[in-house]
């Protein structure tokens, strides 16, 4: 799989081993699948608040999100085709059971499982609440922190593993940044100024009071798909 930036430029190649989640059964392999994701309106609200108060908007990305949490129930999987596991225990098992099948018990919440998004969302919520953030009652992806002594605050919204952070409390933001790296490892990324979010290109002015959001690349792709097969290509102009 090839990952592109919001500008359409190449970012990196990605590959994942996934489980055959479509074989899992409700009530046996999992019970819950719900995992909230931030709405575009919420992200725009965060940008608007940051622009009003002149605060920088940070972007954090949690690596291998679903692998950060353990599975809640025993789940067994077979190895993918083309992959063999060498072990003296397995060799002994195959000798005693030449027609038997070998499977492995999952420890981490692998991609493809129906319950993986729910487990990660639950883990992230517990992590942020322990840091002192409060979850919004109207939007489950929105978290706030307020220092009642100084009046300084911090806002965070999450789209699965993509986090937007802004606020006036620099000490808490540093605490949050250190906690994220401590929990999710050195592969965790933290950008002091957001450049893209939800496929949108974001630019923040030097004084932080002006934020421009553009979806030009996505619109270009859409118009290219629509215009395929037509004699006259569709054209548009303007900034979204």
Q: What is the rounded Rg?
A: 22 Å
Please tell me what the overall shape is: globular
Taking the sheet with the most strands, its summary is: 6 strands, antiparallel
How many beta-strand elements?
Answer: 13
N to C succession of SSEs:
EEHEEHEHEEEEHEEEEH
Straight-line distance between termini: 28 Å
Mean pLDDT: 84
Overview of the molecule:
The protein has helices at residues 40-53, 88-96, 116-130, 170-184, 216-227, and strands at residues 2-4, 10-13, 58-61, 76-77, 104-105, 134-135, 142-146, 153-159, 162-167, 189-191, 196-197, 200-204, 211-214. The chain is α+β, with helices and mostly antiparallel strands and 240 residues long. The strands form four sheets. The chain has a six-stranded antiparallel beta sheet, sandwiched between helices. Strands 11-12-13 form a three-stranded antiparallel beta sheet. A two-stranded antiparallel sheet has the order 1-2. It contains five helices and 13 strands. The chain is globular, with a radius of gyration of 22 Å. 27% of the residues lie in helices and 20% in strands.
How would you concisely characterize the structure shown here?
27% of the residues lie in helices and 20% in strands.
Please give a handful of descriptors for the protein shown.
240 residues, alpha+beta, six-stranded antiparallel beta sheet, three-stranded antiparallel beta sheet, 20% strand, globular
Topology, please?
Blueprint: E1 2-4, E2 10-13, H1 40-53, E3 58-61, E4 76-77, H2 88-96, E5 104-105, H3 116-130, E6 134-135, E7 142-146, E8 153-159, E9 162-167, H4 170-184, E10 189-191, E11 196-197, E12 200-204, E13 211-214, H5 216-227
Antiparallel strand pairs: 1-2, 3-9, 3-10, 4-5, 6-7, 7-8, 8-9, 11-12, 12-13
């Amino acid at each position: 799989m090839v990952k592109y930036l919001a500008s359409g430029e190449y970012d990196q190649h990605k590959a994942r081993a996934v489980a055959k989640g479509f074989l899992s059964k409700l009530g046996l392999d999992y019970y819950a699948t719900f995992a909230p994701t931030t709405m575009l309106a919420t992200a725009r609200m965060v940008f608007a608040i940051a622009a009003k108060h002149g605060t920088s908007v940070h972007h954090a990305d949690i690596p291998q999100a679903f692998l950060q949490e353990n599975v809640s129930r025993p789940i067994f999987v077979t190895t993918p085709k083309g992959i063999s596991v060498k072990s003296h225990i397995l060799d002994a098992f195959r000798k005693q059971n030449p027609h038997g099948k070998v499977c492995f018990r999952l420890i981490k919440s692998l991609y493809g499982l129906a319950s993986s998004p729910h487990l990660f969302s639950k883990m992230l919520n517990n992590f942020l609440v322990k840091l002192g953030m409060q979850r919004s009652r109207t939007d489950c992806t929105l978290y706030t922190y307020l220092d009642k002594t100084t009046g300084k605050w911090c806002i965070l919204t999450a789209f699965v593993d993509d986090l937007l952070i802004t606020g006036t409390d620099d000490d808490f933001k540093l605490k949050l940044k250190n906690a994220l790296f401590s929990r999710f490892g050195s592969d965790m990324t933290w950008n002091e100024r957001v450049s893209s979010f939800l496929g949108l290109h974001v630019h923040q002015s030097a004084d932080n009071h002006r934020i421009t959001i553009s979806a030009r690349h996505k619109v270009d792709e859409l118009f290219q798909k629509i215009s395929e097969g037509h004699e006259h290509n569709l054209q548009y102009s303007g900034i979204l």
